[in-house]
Amino acid sequence: MWAFVLASAVLVAVPGPNMVYIVTRAAAHGRRAGLLSALGVETGTLVHAGLAVAGAAALLAASPVASGAIRWAGAGYLLRLGLRALRPRPAPTAPIVPEAAGRTFRDGVLVNLLNPKVGLFFLAFLPQFATTRAGLLVHGAVFFALALAVDLGYALAGAAVSGRLRVGGRWPAVIYLALAGYAALA
């Protein structure tokens, strides 16, 4: 288990699209949005782990069409978030307007679920450390706990710099659109 915890900690600590998404959400909409986004992203991680245990990740790996469809759906969803962020907003000096909690959480879940690489990661990574369903579930839960702790830290860091980053008001849209491009091309 310690080898898994160490390997997972290294993987979770490397910044990636989830971290960029969470920090952007926190910086643009405040600490609450960042924390809800982190909870949503990692709820998606739990779903991916469960799908890997159930064997669905193997089906995804075996079907380039399904994998591509999920990848394009994810890119489309990030594009939608980017376009939504381009809508007229209050002046940068106005207070942060919180988004609805359910929507913020749901966006985080969908950003993670619509990333086929996460499912494939669990297909390739978890079985190296556990072979039984119970073992896979335990290891998936451990990975979730590590990832959630790190993502909550990213959310708090994003919220801490939010006042300094809200100049111009369009940077979240640019980041979401860049993530959509990354998802489509990766």
How many helical elements?
A: 10
Mean pLDDT: 78
- Radius of gyration, CA atoms, in whole angstroms: 17 Å
Q: What structural class results from the helix and strand content?
A: mainly alpha
The outline comes out as globular
The count of β-strands is 0
Which spans have pLDDT < 50 for at least 5 consecutive residues? none
Proportion of residues in helical segments:
over 70%
Strand content: under 5%
Main beta sheet, described? none
Quaternary structure type: single chain
Report the order of strands and helices.
Answer: HHHHHHHHHH
Q: Calculate the terminal CA-CA distance, rounded to whole Å.
A: 31 Å
Folded structure, characterized:
The protein has ten helices and no strands. Helix 2 packs antiparallel against helix 10 (171-185) and helix 4 (56-62) packs across helix 7. It is globular and about 50 Å long. It has helices at 2-13, 17-29, 31-54, 56-62, 64-86, 101-113, 116-125, 133-160, 162-165, 171-185. With 186 residues, it is mostly helical. Helices cover 80% and strands 0% of the residues. It is found in: Cell membrane. It comes from Streptomyces roseoverticillatus. Keywords: Cell membrane, Membrane, Transmembrane, Transmembrane helix. InterPro entries: LeuE-type. This is LysE family translocator.
